[in-house]
Specification:
Blueprint: H1 2-23, H2 25-46, H3 56-83, H4 86-106, H5 110-138, H6 144-148, H7 150-166, H8 171-191, H9 196-201, H10 205-216, H11 221-241, H12 245-265, H13 267-272, H14 274-282, H15 288-306, H16 310-313, H17 315-338, H18 345-349, H19 352-368, H20 370-381, H21 387-400
């Protein structure tokens, strides 16, 4: 009997993780989109067979216009998720990035590249809203924290793919390789059920229960009824929070502050821009490729390990530990860089491992705490009707930084 229960639990876990991995292709595509510029821009600034040599201003537009697309997307997406549902919104959002990758692959002018990046950015902004929301809503309570880490993990995995493929392929080939990821996302979202939480919000209890049964792989009345009551209780609390200003302000304020701190930490920018600063981190005597590889792999591995303990340890302890280690690591790295001059450069190069360890520790701490937990709490705490506005504010702060 115990063996039968274990099989049911494992099957339920597999379906939930499959759902998370399926829509997670959007995060993977977004990670490739963010890392694409670090591979393409240096090549374009030299000389390209199709574009020739572009100016620094043109390079800046190509690199950053995707964020403008994201800014245009997040507010309407926040409204669409409640009107059309999570699954339909994912399906719709998969088209702009697919078209964007095609344009970036065949583009023979700066204008086409910019337009492709803009379209891909629209999907990137949408994925930032809808994917963490969908994943946390399909997950059981005991798995919600672990599955909540999947968005940022796959985001960093996308950057790792860019670095690895960049050793063997040009930026155009990378664009072609990214096209199937968008197609897989569409296929996965097409066959996955709608979020049970959303179906209960709109009052469709029958379909919500069927969706819950599919993800939990059980028809046992007691188990399903217990979780139905839990979901209905969350929906009721959300409805009550609309009339409770203090509760609403906490649900919006805490995640918004965390997202602001996440952007001020600049860890994400450092990860995706590590190619340009690898000489500073590793020193003149270390292989820049080895430095980049260490930094790129660190968040992917760390998030995978942290996902195993977040539901046992809790969000708050990991968040506190993360910010403390990040502060100490960056302080030590800053001191090393500040005292470096041409006269003592040779001396400091003997201790180059201090800079590398400090930077790796900073990324390590960000990866098990502030980075993924900010996204997780955004999906868990923010009332549904405010998600679009909160994500809008977060991306505006990111643009300003």
């Amino acid at each position: 009997m115990c063996g039968s229960c274990c099989i049911k639990i494992c099957t339920s876990t597999v379906r939930q993780h499959l759902g998370s991995a399926g829509v997670g292709h959007g995060a993977l595509a977004l990670g490739i989109l963010l890392g694409w510029s670090s591979l393409a821009i240096p090549e374009l600034l030299k000389k390209s067979d199709t574009l020739g040599k572009i100016s620094p201003i043109e390079a800046s537009w190509i690199s950053n216009i995707s964020l403008l697309g994201a800014l245009c997307a997040v507010l309407p997406i926040g409204l669409m998720v409640d009107r059309f549902g999570r699954r339909i919104t994912i399906l719709i959002s998969s088209f702009p990035i697919l078209i964007g990758w095609i344009l970036m692959s065949i583009g023979n002018s700066v204008g086409i590249l910019c337009f492709g990046r803009f379209l891909a950015g629209i999907s990137g902004g949408a994925f930032s809203v809808i994917i963490p929301l969908y994943v946390t809503e399909i997950a059981e309570t005991r798995l919600r924290g672990a599955m909540g880490y999947s968005f940022t993990q796959q985001l960093c995995a996308g950057a790792m793919i860019v670095f690895i493929m960049g050793k063997f392929a040009s930026w155009k080939i990378l664009g072609f390789k990214a096209i199937p990821i968008s197609i897989i996302l569409f296929i996965a979202a097409y066959f996955l059920p709608e979020s049970p939480h959303y179906l209960f919000i709109i009052g469709d209890k029958g379909k919500g229960t069927d969706s819950l049964k599919w993800f939990r792989t059980t028809t046992e009345k007691e188990i399903i009824e217990a979780e139905v009551k839990e979901i209905e209780s969350r929906v009721d609390r959300m409805t009550m929070s609309r009339h409770n200003g203090q509760s609403l302000s906490k649900g919006v304020g805490i995640p918004a502050v965390l997202m602001l701190l996440q952007q001020l930490s600049c860890a994400g920018h450092l990860i995706f821009g590590i190619v340009s600063i690898s000489d500073v981190i590793g020193g003149k005597t270390m292989n820049p490729s080895s430095v980049v590889l260490i930094i790129i792999i660190t968040p992917v591995v760390t998030m995978g390990l942290a996902a195993l303990i977040v539901d046992r340890v809790g969000r708050r302890p990991l968040l506190i530990l993360s910010t403390l280690v990040m502060s100490l690591s960056f302080f030590l790295l800053g001191c090393c860089i500040y005292v470096q001059t041409d006269e003592n450069d040779s001396v400091l190069n003997k201790f180059r491992w201090i800079r590398l360890i400090s930077f790796v520790s900073y990324i390590f701490a960000y990866s098990f705490g502030l980075g993924p937990i900010s996204w997780l709490l955004m999906a868990e705490l923010v009332p549904d009707r405010r998600k679009g506005k909160v994500w809008w504010n977060e991306l505006i702060s990111k643009k300003k930084i």
